[in-house]
Amino acid sequence: MSTFAINRRQLLQTGGIGGLAVALSAMSSGAAQAAPKKQTAGVPLITDLGPAVVQFSLMSSLLVGDTVYIGSRNLNPVRVIGYHLPTGTITSRTDLGSGYSIQALAADSTGRYLYAGVLRDGMDGKPNLYRWDLSTPNVPAVGVGETGDRDIRALAVAPDGKVYVAGGGQTTNAPSLWEYDPATNAMTSWGIPDPGATIAQAVAATASHVYFGTGSTLGGGNGSSPARLFAFDRTTKTSTNILPADVATGVSVTSLSVLNGQLGVGVKGPGKSVLINLANHSQYTVIAKTGVMFRQLGNDVFFVKEPGVWSYNLVSKKITQILTEDVGAMWGLDVYGNKALTVSSYDVIEIDPVAKTAVKHDLTQAGAPGGPQLCMGLAAGAGDVYVGGTGTIARHQLATDQVSYLRATGEAKDAVIVGGILYTGQYNSRGIYAYDPTTGQLPYQVAALPAGQNRPLDVCWDAVNGLVIAGAQNDTGGGGCFAAYNPVTTQVISKVNPIDSLQMVRAVATKDGVAYLGGDNIYATGPRSTVVAWDPVANQELWRLDPGQPQGIAAMAIHGKFLYGMSRKAAGLFVIDLDTRQVVHRGDLSSVCTDFGALQVSRGIVYGVSDTSVFRIDPITFAVSVVVAEINGGWYSGPHITADEDGLLYTLRGPNLVRIDDQQAMQTMRR
């Protein structure tokens, strides 16, 4: 899902926080909840509940010498920290001047210079490539260049010190291969080898070649290109697609690693990887398992295939799992002595490949400098408010002001509470998770979504049929799916592309046992705002209506006989009479939103939240009025708003969770 530049840029900086433990202690009883201001007539009562999610989250790692350098994710400022293996402590840190996450790290052959590439919200004119001199770690990293693509997804440093960059970001623009020359400080495009690609996730470099992996893992489908691997001759800068036919049906080349005479190639889709001979690209070996982040120790090639780390023996051709524990997402793999070393969302993990044992080093205990994180899904009920982060879900217990953190692989994109139990739509390809606070068990998967439906977008509860309803997106192939999970029977009903092959199911709502699916089409052509009434038990369409909006649907809610829809990119409000199946109102929302948003019914009123404002919709006239201006929530994948059993609203203001009581304002409006 696209994200909000204003929210990331406005997220409060947390450079003064010395570590996650310090940040958490600041949220103890009495500190997390500020006293609400006195409410005046017609003005909502807003209570600040403190930072919504506080942690050190990460998106990359690289071993240089005896220090693992780790790039942060969804923190402001973005930072690289150094975890010193011999002492088990964080010994260095540098902050970067742009971006919200660091997915790419690479070091030069001397081990002196560490390069970091960032993900950004837009082309902001700031560097997206940084260099840190590890010989003087107290001196901050410096921005050395900006590519013509928004994001940097992968970096490689050739033996002569030149840096090669892969990325993309704007899926309508194919990615280029970029070269940074530290001798001249020049950033140069080597061109776009595949105009049909939407992303480049991998790059590797030798003295003679640069290898550039492309595909369509984001914004895929509708004719976008499959996986391709281009070998660029560094002298002529000409390229050839060398991806073997065995994996050519893949969606994207996801990983490239220069090994001892071979190139380790990870490909999403075909269920296998390849090792290509660097001296003769037509010669290769197939590994019968998908993998990323290939590293070699003797005759063993290690790679990650979640939820484990694996070893492929070059002599016996045998594949062995050397890390069997599910440690969640892994963001790096290296060889340290005679061990494999990986970094999960929480730990640095040393793996003995012979004994198949692992030792985990908790990054929080080591002093990783956390802070308020950009947030995902939100749900309130049974005295709790849950906020999704990366690899974690924060549980705010309102009666005691206590905040606890539940490890949950991936990201809770949306959530709902039913009978005190939390159900989340869990990205990436994790389906529906459940958490029952009475059991003490961490959140776990209760329902898988169909293959390829990797991004849950919206979750709601169908009280008539007793179903958790979810809508999702297929990032690689386009379209989306409907899914319904029955907590009593544990059965899952699903339908791929219930709207059409292009529209994802961006929004879901229910009334009287009928599910309503809201479509969003990210492509240039085709319907883009279709509403489909769906029988979740028979798993079939009942009827459909296209309200004719110029943009896709961002959110929906139902109150009485009316379905309210909020369109993306400030394209407006529409209201459908479910009895007559007619659009009865269209309205302008440009004064309160710019793109994504959410809708929530509370106390008989439909409320909305955007990246800038909380607003309400008059149930009689459908007029829109502002409840809280300049809320500017610190969201990653779109704003959320929810309500508890008492009708109190919850959302974010900056990085903080806030509670909004709009009761007096509503009484004033009714008068």
Could you walk me through the main structural features you see in this protein, from its secondary elements to its overall organization?
This protein is mainly β and 671 residues long. The protein has 3 domains: 5-29 and 47-53 and 370-670, Methylamine Dehydrogenase, Chain H, CATH 2.130.10.10; 58-146, Thrombin, subunit H (Beta Barrel), CATH 2.40.10.480; 150-258, Thrombin, subunit H (Beta Barrel), CATH 2.40.10. It is built from 3 helices and 57 strands. The strands form 14 sheets. Strands 32-33-34-35-36-37-38 form a 7-stranded antiparallel beta sheet, with no helix packed on it. It has a 4-stranded antiparallel beta sheet with strand order 1-57-56-55, with no helix packed on it. A 4-stranded antiparallel beta sheet has the order 3-4-5-6, with no helix packed on it. A hairpin with a 3-residue loop joins strand 36 (421-427) and strand 37. The radius of gyration is 25 Å and the shape is globular. The two termini are 40 Å apart. Residues 1-39 have low confidence and may be disordered.
